[in-house]
Amino acid sequence: MNLRAPVTLLDVAQRAGVSVATASRVLNGGDRVPRPELQERVRAAADALGYTPNAQAQALAKSSTNVVGILVHDIEDPYFAAIANGVMRAADERNLLVMLASTFRDAEREIAYLASLRAQRARAAVMIGSRRTDAESLARTASEVGSFLNSGAGLALVSQSGMPAHTIEPDNRAGAAELARSLAGLGWRKFGILGGPEALATARDRRDGFLAGLADSGLEPVAVEYGDFTRDGGYAAAEELLDRGADVDCLFAVNDVMAVGAMSALRARGIDVPGRLGVAGFDDIATLRDVWPGLTTVRLPLEQMGRRALELAIEGGEPSVETFKAEVVLRESTARA
């Protein structure tokens, strides 16, 4: 079987009667643009030979590709999925290709993915996650963020303040504080808090905001139980709190997936929501449309946050921080008879 060898840039250059460098500048792009007649000869030669430009060569010549990277802590989490969806829609409108990776909340994996995008000369990246409070991992991440930006690529982060790049920040503290005041206004008094990992700033900010809101209402929490930032984490934290016999009448989970897990734990024990216990979350993820009773929560414009992150990453310029306000949404899970 006689397979035809692939057409190379050298073949095109020889047919057009130009140097390989000139042929590359015409077909792969570059700062120096050959004369129009040379461009015509090279393109005619490429068409005649059926030459297909090499994407990596184009990236080297242009200093970047049309690829945008999205790094998320966990794409299975509806919160991250909604923000990533906003990034992808904004990228599609700009004819950009998207590479998506889950870091599984692993700082080293996040750094490695960002370094890989830099090596591939990605045009931009959006990092979606919760800022860690570990100084060592923060320093390593900041170093790679600096290297990525110095390569000429754009970058924006969501919920990861403190980095030398554009940042989208949800107003977690203010939203949680307003939720606490609203629940107290409904007559709830004995609160249990289901906190996420203490190493995640998002979880801590929401917990601290809720505590501040309770204090504004002259209240303190009865109990605080920590767990993973997941549905199973909420389930386990609620069970632990119940097993300890905590005298609570309302549970606040620092995100919706934990709240959904908590409601499942209560349902498994035959505890009526909201008859015996109220439950509230944070984020207003799309999944809540299928949850009954409807979950009281704090709404964030998740897709809009993702869109804006992509815009900032593409625009570049000096790092900026944009804060998105949160809105309390009261539903059946905290309704009082």
Describe this structure in words.
The chain is α/β, with parallel strands linked by helices. The protein has 3 domains: 9-62, 434 Repressor (Amino-terminal Domain) (Orthogonal Bundle), CATH 1.10.260; 67-170 and 303-324, Response regulator (Rossmann fold), CATH 3.40.50.2300; 172-299 and 328-334, Response regulator (Rossmann fold). It is 46% helix and 16% strand. The strands form 3 sheets. A 6-stranded parallel β-sheet has the order 2-1-3-4-5-11, with helices on both faces. α5 (78-93) packs across α12. The chain starts with 8 loop residues before the first helix and ends in an 8-residue tail after the last strand.
In CATH terms, the superfamily of the largest domain is Response regulator
**Could you tell me the strand content as a percent range?**
15-25%
Structural class, from secondary structure content? alpha/beta
Order of helices and strands: HHHHEHEHEHEEHEHEHEHEEHEE
Number of helices: 12
Number of domains: 3
As laid out across the biggest beta sheet, the strand order is 2-1-3-4-5-11
What is the general shape? Answer: elongated
Which value, in Å, is the CA radius of gyration? 26 Å
Report the helical percentage: 40-55%
- Span of the ends, CA to CA: 81 Å
Name given to the CATH architecture of the largest domain = 3-Layer(aba) Sandwich
- Overall pLDDT score: 89
- Poorly predicted ranges (pLDDT <50, ≥5 residues)? none
The number of E-state strands comes to 12
User: How many strands, what sense, and barrel or not for the largest sheet?
Assistant: 6 strands, parallel
CATH topology annotation of the largest domain: Rossmann fold
Protein name: LacI family transcriptional regulator
Keywords: DNA-binding, Transcription, Transcription regulation
GO molecular function, one term: DNA-binding transcription factor activity
Domain HTH lacI-type: 7-62
